[in-house]
DNA sequence: ACCTGAACACCGTTCAAGT
DNA sequence: ACCTGAACACCGTTCAAGT
């Protein structure tokens, strides 16, 4: 028994059965141990979920340093996305919890550093960070099915006869969602806006 | 007993005690009724939460028609924000659930219609809709404390001695978060990008 | 220091019985 | 058609007891 073994088993459980299926008792069973043993290494269910989120966050690779701001920011965004899509059912933990731990600051540093190096004043850099992050969180929540598609959950035929003119007109495009393309479309908007200080 | 009375009591309960505190049994107690009575009007806990989300969504006011696209989009975004901030603890229901109901299409129509009227081809209009929505979802999740601040959860002193250079340099700005200003900053980026088809 | 198991106070939902 | 209550199969966590 160790904290790490517990967190890894927890992540595996989320990956396989989904967040809603995770319980301390089932996790203990999976580890062949009494439920209460977990409490020696983890502070409770909430702390367990925080711990899993931190593992995911820590696994995001630091992209190679690049003198071009846009290149760096793009690589960071894609790295974050890849990490979340690697564990889609666990991603909401990262996208949804406020982590107090210091490891949660690594991605902040990764985004802030290139912005400051590019000449951004710190206040603008923080605004930029937060805008990009909001977009990333919103987009990724949608990708992992934890946020509304606002239309995507409906069938084409249903959209067409909704009685809503704009929805009907755009029905063929609403009915499908190419996450990759949507991600690039939105990311380009953010990166264009942050092109220079 | 009626579906509406149940949904209203459910919303009140979320407002007062938070999402995690909602249970079918407590809701029944609040209504002075047997827990199982609720099942005659609502399909279970998940359907109850969907129903509450739909109520919130339906309460978003339709802004007055304005020939200016930017004005219209801005009014829609602010209306959506106001509706979520009016029920911050319930907002994650809207921001987090995929509603299959037809009422979930009203906001889509509201955003799509002005974009089409402004000359957007339908495919571009849907991209624009999704990018704006992703930003709104991400920002509002942060505002209602359901998404990471990535830094905001930390104290100033802690940020300064984090050992991370960019984080230290920007610490005073990371330590505070003016949600209003962040919202306007990000929204402006999105609206600028959507200024013309 | 770590593990155990009984116990407490909860859950959502099924089902048979009532009116 | 709607309400009820017992019952089932779960929860997270406390606490006293063990090693």
Automatic annotation (TrEMBL), chains A, B:
Residues 1-60 form the HTH tetR-type domain. The keyword DNA-binding applies. GO terms for biological process: negative regulation of DNA-templated transcription; response to antibiotic. SUPFAM superfamilies: Homeodomain-like, Tetracyclin repressor-like, C-terminal domain. Residues 23-42 bind DNA. Keywords: DNA-binding, Repressor, Transcription, Transcription regulation. It comes from the Bacteria. GO terms for molecular function: DNA-binding transcription factor activity; transcription cis-regulatory region binding. This is TetR family transcriptional regulator. It comes from Amycolatopsis rifamycinica.
């Amino acid at each position: 028994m160790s904290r790490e073994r517990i967190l890894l088993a927890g992540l595996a459980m989320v990956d396989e059965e989904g967040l809603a299926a995770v319980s301390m008792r089932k996790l203990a069973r999976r580890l062949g141990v009494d439920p209460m043993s977990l409490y020696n290494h983890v502070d409770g269910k909430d702390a367990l979920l925080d711990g899993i989120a931190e593992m995911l966050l820590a696994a995001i690779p630091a992209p190679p340093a690049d003198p071009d701001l846009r290149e760096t920011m793009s690589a960071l965004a894609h790295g974050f996305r890849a990490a979340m899509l690697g564990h889609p059912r666990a991603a909401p933990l990262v996208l949804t919890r406020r982590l107090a731990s210091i490891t949660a600051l690594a991605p902040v540093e990764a985004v802030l550093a290139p912005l400051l190096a590019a000449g951004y004043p710190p206040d603008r850099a923080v605004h930029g960070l937060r805008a990009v992050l909001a977009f990333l969180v919103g987009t990724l929540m949608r990708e992992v099915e934890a946020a509304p598609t606002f239309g995507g959950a409906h069938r084409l035929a249903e959209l067409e006869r909704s009685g809503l003119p704009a929805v009907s007109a755009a029905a063929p495009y609403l009915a499908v969602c190419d996450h990759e393309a949507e991600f690039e479309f939105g990311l380009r908007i953010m990166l264009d806006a942050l092109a220079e200080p």
